[in-house]
Amino acid sequence: MIKAIIFDWGGVLIENPTPAMIKYFSASLGVAGRAINFAGDRLVLRFQKGIISEETLWEEVCRTLKVQKPSSPSLWYDAFRKSYKPRTEMFSLASNLKSDGYRVGLLSNAEIPAMKFFEEQRYDMFEATIFSCAVGVSKPERRIYEIALDALQVTPHEAIFIDSAKKLGIKTIHFITELQVKTELRSLLKKT
What we know:
The chain is α/β, with parallel strands linked by helices and 192 residues long. It has helices at residues 18-29, 33-48, 54-65, 75-83, 88-99, 112-121, 132-135, 142-152, 178-190; strands at 4-8, 103-108, 128-131, 159-162, 171-173. It folds into 2 domains: 4-15 and 85-190, Rossmann fold (3-Layer(aba) Sandwich); 18-83. The protein has a 5-stranded parallel beta sheet with strand order 3-2-1-4-5, with helices on both faces. Strand 2 (103-108), helix 6 and strand 3 (128-131) form a beta-alpha-beta unit.
C-alpha cells in the first residue's frame, strides 16, 4: 500500500533553474556560460553535498577563470532566487496528497543557499525535506533515498518518487508534464 509520495524539487516542483543560473553567473562574472560550467563542474557536487562552502566554490571558480570574486555575499542565492519558477500545479498536487492522508516528502540535490531559499518559502505540505547539502550524500547514491524513506517512516514499496529512484524498489514517475504526473499517480494510487 502506498503511504508516501516523494517529490524531487528541481525539474519537478520547479522548473530546472540551472540554465538561468548559469546565465546569471556568466553576466555577474563577465565570462561565457561554458567557462562557468567547465570551472564549476568538479566543485558543484561537493557544494551540493555540503563538503565545501559557497565561498570556497567561488574562490576556486574565479581562480580558474582568472576573474574577481563576486561582491554578493551569496551569488548562488541571488541566482537561485532570480531563476526560481515554481510549478503551482505540482505544489497543489503535493498539498492535496497531504490532505488526502499521504506522507509527502521532498528529496533534492541542492546547495545551502537553495535550501535556505526553500525554507524561506514556508511550504507546509512536506512532512520531510531531504537536501543533499544537509545530509552529505546526493542522488543517485542509495543512502539519500534511504534517508528519505526513514524520515517518512515507510519502506521502498510504500513510496512513490516523482523523478528517478527505481533501484531501491521505489515506484517512480519520471516528470514530463504536470498532467502526465497526475495521470500516472492516479493510476498507481488506484492499484494500492
